[in-house]
Amino acid sequence: MKLSTGDRWDLIDKISKETVTFGAYKHTLKDAIGELTVKPMTGIPVAIAIMYGFWSMFGSFAGFFTDGFFVRLFDAYWLPWLQEVFPGQGGWLYAIMVDAGGIESGEFVLSSNCLESFGVLTSGLFVAIGVVLPAIIIFYLMLALLEDIGYMPRLAVLLDTVLHRVGLHGYAIVPTILSLGCNVPGVTATRILETKKQRFIMMTLLAIFIPCGAQIGIMQDVVPDLMGWILLYLIIGYFIFGYILNKIVPGKAPEFLIDVPPYRRPMPSNIGKKVGGRVRGFFMIAIPFVLIGCALVGILYQLGVIQFLGDMLAPVFVGWFGVPAETAGPLIAAFLRKDLAVAQLSVIEMTKYQMITAVVLVSIYFPCVATFAMMLKEGWKELLGSLAVLTVVVFAYGGLIHLIGKLLGVA
Amino acid sequence: MKILLMGHPNVGKSVFFNRLTGANVTESNYPGTMVDYTKGWMKIEGEDVEIVDVPGTFSLDPKDRAEEVAVAMLHENRDAKVISVIDASKIERGIYLALEIIEEGYPLVIALNMRDVAEDKNIVIDADRLERILGIPVVSTVAIAGEGIKELVSRLKEAKPINVEDIIANAANASNTESVADAGGAA
Amino acid sequence: MKKKLSEMDYAEQGTVTGIEDDLRKRVAGMGIRVGKKLRMVTKQPIKGPVDVVVEGAETSLGLDMAGKITIEVTK
To answer: How far is A198 from chain B (nearest CA, A)?
Structure first.
């Protein structure tokens, strides 16, 4: 027999009366902290402080290992050694695997660092291990810590007001933050949202506006002083287009209903397991994609495809987005490897604002293939929908950024 | 035999799972969704038993994808036994979910977990009496410290389907009987 | 004094006296039900969610939902 909700509670009341005694409940320090971090007056400053701390830890840890260790390792030892021993210098295989080099006063010259060489074994490995690995480890470590002590639900409560305006609700912060590591688990985490509409909005916003750890790592490395502006443009875009999507996507955007568990002492074993699993998962996806993407970009350059497309599309890039014609190549290559594209962009001569525009463009267009495969699980209609939104966003938002730049007189 | 570990999120279900199973654990994706769940194996009295860590859910009326999967997994395993993990400090809403599962006819064992947290909050639970009223094994546990896990496993064989009408009758009886020593049941 | 949960002030307490039908099942799993004591912890500004404690468990729910729950406020 099944009971109605009311009858079931009546029965529980009877059982509880017979078996449970509730003594006087005394407020503990933990409760007090719990409440302070969820009340807006105190909770919002704390949230900002935590996010700021998160960001500075991320920057300094990743910077310490990347600049302090891997850059030296790769540029001073690995690259020169490979340039020396890999056969067929100047040939196409050499260019793809080790160093595409450059032409200076009519002579072939080798690259001096792993961000310019564009070989699978040089740039590819350097990006994967030297840049992304430290970034991803520190990122997931700090996130696991916040999750394990039970902070995330409170952050969700504080952010619900704004996220509900874009058709989501507070818990959407979980897939959003996860995506800053890698969009794939981010897309997976959209399962905590109730309706198809909410999941569609979330996935589309993640795929477009949330740069993954690989990209953030490389941006942090090559354009650190512009990070703030780039992220600001991405966050603004997230909310503008979220708001529009909420208005035009059919379906329901139900309200937030979540349990806010008490804080608890973090368990190292828990955190270790979580970080280990996520880092492993990331590398299963990222390493092959970085290396294969790198190889494909190399091949397309060798075949002249990227130069051809670049020349063809350069007027669009220059006219509509206001970036120099030289960025066309990297912006095309970004379809395959966003991180390498950012590295390529960083060595092109242009104004700060053009650089911001170009990097934002790289971030918002075409999510990585792994994310695509993941989104396909939700359904091909959703995927096509996301693609359509993506196309509109790239042109509309890219144009808008250009326009803002013009109005400010900096573009 | 198959055992489903069910309960609210954050009741220590995964800690149970890790304590029960050894290294042989696989994470799988529930077909057609992006929801993952873990399963593993343990030996109980020589028999290989499959343990499934079902995604946390607050009730059998799902409100999101993860909860939908939890309910679907329950319904797909009609012959499974369920370990209902309850946060002892939030016992009433825990029993709500346990009752829902009992009403669907599943044999159930209740793990009253986080007993220590409940005690800190001055909540005292008469587990024996609860067991007599519900007619199923109720074991107090502190999964993080490994307390009560052995007893829970040893009592799994006592789990049997219970008619909720019996529970209603037991509850009415219990309130009429001052002395509970002879209230009958699973003792 | 009876109030809607959405209208309760910070730190007020009371007993749940009514939950609209369509919401009753949805909040049942969180332990929110008629007859239970409830304490308002906080609410977020600009129509944000309401944070309550029932049976020692903290739940945060949207303002529209909170409007479907009536409370007899005791203090």
So the answer is: 11
Shortest Cα distance, chain B CAs vs residue C67, angstroms: 19
Residue of C nearest to A22 (CA): C55
Which of B57, B61, B71, B93 to mutate: most C Cβ within 10 Å?
A: B93
Q: Which of B96, B121, B123 sits opposite C29 (nearest CB)?
A: B96
Q: Whole-angstrom Cα distance, residue A114 to residue A104?
A: 18
How far C56 CA lies from chain B's nearest CA (Å)? 7
- Taken in order A37, A38, A42, A45, the sign of the CA dihedral is positive
Whether C56 and chain B come into contact, CB under 8 Å, resolves to yes
Contact C48 A13 (CB under 8 A): no
Task: ipTM value, please give it.
Answer: 0.91
CATH number of the domain where residue C30 is located: 2.30.30.90
Q: What's the pTM value of the predicted model, to 2 decimals?
A: 0.85
In a domain, A15, yes or no: no
Where do the domains of chain B lie, and which CATH numbers do they carry? Answer: 2-176 (3.40.50.300)
How many structural domains is chain C composed of? Answer: 1
Domain, as residue range, for C27? 2-73
Number of domains in chain A: 1
Which of A1, A3, A12, A15 best probes binding to B when mutated, by most B CB atoms within 10 angstroms? Answer: A15
User: Tell me: the pLDDT tens digits for B89-120?
Assistant: 889 999 999 999 999 999 999 999 988 888 88
Instruction: Determine the structural domain holding residue A120 and report its residue range.
Output: 34-251+278-408
Asked if the structure places residue A71 within a domain, the reply is: yes
Strand order across the B47-53 sheet: B25-29, B36-44, B47-53, B2-7, B81-87, B108-113, B138-140
Phi/psi region, residue B146 (left: phi>0; alpha: psi -120 to 50; beta: rest), is: left
Full pLDDT tens readout for chain B, 187 residues: 899 999 998 888 888 888 888 767 777 777 666 677 888 888 888 888 899 999 889 999 887 788 888 999 999 999 999 999 999 988 999 999 999 999 999 999 999 998 888 888 888 899 899 999 999 999 999 888 888 888 999 999 898 898 888 888 888 887 776 544 444 444 4
Q: Is A262 helix (H, G, I), strand (E, B) or coil?
A: coil
Q: Which residues of A touch B175 (CB under 8 A)?
A: 14, 17-18
Whether residue A398 contacts residue A359, with contact meaning beta carbons closer than 8 Å, is answered with no
- Given its phi and psi angles, is residue C51 left (phi above 0), alpha (psi -120 to 50 degrees) or beta? beta
Residue C62 sits at the chain B interface (C-beta within 8 Å): no
